[in-house]
Amino acid sequence: MAKATRAAFGETLIKLVDEGMDIMAVDADLCGSTTTAKFGAAYPDRLFDVGIAEQNMIGVASGLALTGRTVFTGSFAVFGTGRCWEQIRNTVCDSGLNVKICPTHAGITVGADGATHQALEDIALMRVLPGMRVLVPADYASAVAAIRLAAATPGPFYVRLGREPLPEVYDEGFTCDVAFANVLREGSDISIMACGVEVAQALAAADVLAAEGISAEVVDVMSVKPLDEETIIASAAKTGRVLTVEEHSIYGGMGSAVAELLGEKRPVPVTRLGLTTFGQSGDAAELLAYYGLDAAGIAARVREVLGK
Length: 308
Prior knowledge:
Blueprint: E1 3-4, H1 7-18, E2 23-27, H2 31-34, H3 36-42, E3 47-49, H4 54-65, E4 70-73, H5 77-83, H6 85-93, E5 99-101, H7 122-127, E6 133-135, H8 140-152, E7 157-159, E8 165-166, E9 182-185, E10 190-194, H9 198-210, E11 216-220, E12 223-225, H10 229-239, E13 242-249, H11 254-265, E14 270-275, H12 284-290, H13 295-306
Parallel strand pairs: 2-3, 2-4, 4-5, 5-7, 6-7, 10-11, 10-13, 13-14
Antiparallel strand pairs: 1-8, 6-12, 9-11
């Protein structure tokens, strides 16, 4: 059943506390959207809503972390990373605090809220920070795994969550480690490396291409920082061409991280598929199609790259 990655947030925090972890959450007047409201209903003394004040959200989270708690923050991605970037940099990352930045509504699949609410720069903002780990789950099960991993691993994390229900990619109980990439489909002609929303789209594109005689390998690059260098390099070496696909700007995102790695350690042609503009208001599926980020758009770009 399709479920949004944000749906994993509040539910997983409840389970972590049930299991004995000292978890706190701080939100910025978006508890219903981020699903921390569920956590607050179960543990009202563990959720703080600071209002529309993301800078304060990070300050409060940092203070709680200094008392020994593991602290998660909410909000929308465009505000939960952009509005409070300096506080994340100077307070959370410089001190290596145990604060997990887990906003929702990232990417153009926010839909009708439009460009002001569609975070397309958040991965770049977070991966540039020393000490920050960046995870972009592809479905509900991997979002649960990412939140659990962040909770169990000391120090700053960014977990990118979304609004739209996504198809199942992983089974319930899926687990991962820091620096995780996973070959979901073997191929020989090109490696499609995707993250988040685009993983299911890449798998669908590979099905379309297979019917045309094109063998596409699909790799879920869930951990954008640190990268699973071994898996990425092995796939690139095997197919000799890489197409990265992300619901994010092509500047500084997952595609940039992969291109930087391969440029240094295993040079192959790399094409980045993502956005170079702000988004716009519309239905999520229509926006993916408009920007060439649905299965048809990915398949079309693969044909272009391969000259077919």
